[in-house]
Design goal:
Length: 177
Amino acid sequence: MTSEPWGQFPAPGTVRFERRLPGPIERVWSYFADSDLRGQWLAPGPLEGRVGGTLELGFKHSELSPEPYDPPGGRGSGEARHILRCEVLEIDPPRRLSFRWGEDTSVVVVELTPVGDEVALVITQSGLSAGHMTEVAGGWHTHLAILEDRANGRVPQPFWKIWASLDGAYEGRVVAG
């Protein structure tokens, strides 16, 4: 199973990631719909399974791996939980979820497609401002690396360790909005 780790920039203000994860599709969907499983790679919080409902994401990056790691300078201690409330725009279990990213105007679309014993995962975030493209691409890259480890039964590296290893890798790759 191979996944292209780098985000693509198909249009200004848009970043797209593709991954292949072990199926079945319902298992992969649960990493998005179930708060506890989502909390292992992104952020826990309730999901109202209806259009117009809320998806709450409680980010605390230090909880994504049992291995301790100090965040890079300027990133805080990683101990304060940041709550993001998103509006569900579309939900079609177990294939598609889209939501507005907090108070931002950007939209995240999650698409799952069975491919044999695997599931093709595509995450696209569009409507991003030029100033947020690099950070968003690095964030999704890091969170998806953790999801891949979790889905494959591996203990993930700490969020900030992965983030730091990117060391500006998205500079120059980004097509800004």
